[in-house]
Design a protein that fits this description.
transcription, about 75% helix, WH-like_DNA-bd_sf, 2 domains, Arc Repressor Mutant, subunit A, DNA binding, mainly alpha, Four Helix Bundle (Hemerythrin (Met), subunit A), GntR family transcriptional regulator, DNA-binding
């Protein structure tokens, strides 16, 4: 019996595989690739790749250049400005609601993982493993704030932008050697959330996002 959902599953698997390889730097910003290369890289059939490309173009992750092929998005100043502006708009509104709805237990859990990571880093144990842990904690806090809205449209749009943000991170300001300041900034955001005052929380997340933006722009 044919499964009518199979084409959908293949498209989603192709998308997941492409973004995984992109974030693993198996393909680089600005690089040209062919559909056949994407088939070989993702292990997905050509039909799924052909359907994938328009989605990636719509999301700003690739651009099709006649006679040359598919070009992976450049990390340029315009992309950085737009990606950070998107984050700022989304996260300021989300955190205003999150600071009122988040449970004390959730906030305590988020605080503990940040404090534990900060303590390890301050003891001189900033290993690659700790940096990976800190990066995961970093992304998790922002995604937790967005997901608290319970809005699938916003969550999907945010995650598309998050792919661009991770590419910007890799290109412009890796967390390497920066675990202490990043954890301290996040703890300042958590302290603001714990006041349960929306404006205080919005101001704190704006400072945090603008600091990251300035690093990415090398201001």
């Amino acid at each position: 019996m044919d499964d009518g959902n199979e084409p959908v599953r293949l498209r989603e698997k192709a998308y997941a595989s492409f973004t995984e390889h992109l974030l693993a730097r198996d393909i680089n910003p600005g690089q040209f690739v062919s559909q056949r290369q994407l088939v070989a890289m993702t292990g997905m059939p050509l039909g799924a790749i052909r359907e994938l490309v328009p989605r990636l173009e719509a999301e700003g992750l690739v651009k099709t250049i006649p006679q040359r092929g598919i070009q992976i998005a450049h990390i340029d100043l315009n992309l950085i400005r737009e990606a950070f502006q998107f984050r700022l708009f989304m996260e300021k509104e989300a955190i205003a609601l999150f600071c009122l709805s988040a449970s004390d237990e959730l906030l305590a859990k988020l605080r503990k993982e940040h404090e534990d990571t900060l303590e390890e880093a301050m003891q001189g144990r900033e290993t690659p493993e700790l940096e990976l842990q800190a990066q995961t904690i970093d992304w998790n806090l922002h995604e937790t704030i967005i997901d608290s809205l319970g809005n699938g449209i916003i969550a999907k749009a945010y995650r598309i932008n998050a792919i661009k943000m991770r590419l910007i991170n890799q290109e412009r300001f890796r967390i390497t050697g920066r675990v202490v300041p990043v954890m301290r900034e996040h703890l300042a955001v958590l302290t603001a959330i714990e006041t349960r005052d929306p404006q205080t929380a919005m101001d704190a997340i704006a400072v945090h996002i603008n600091n990251a933006r300035n690093l990415a722009l090398k201001l």
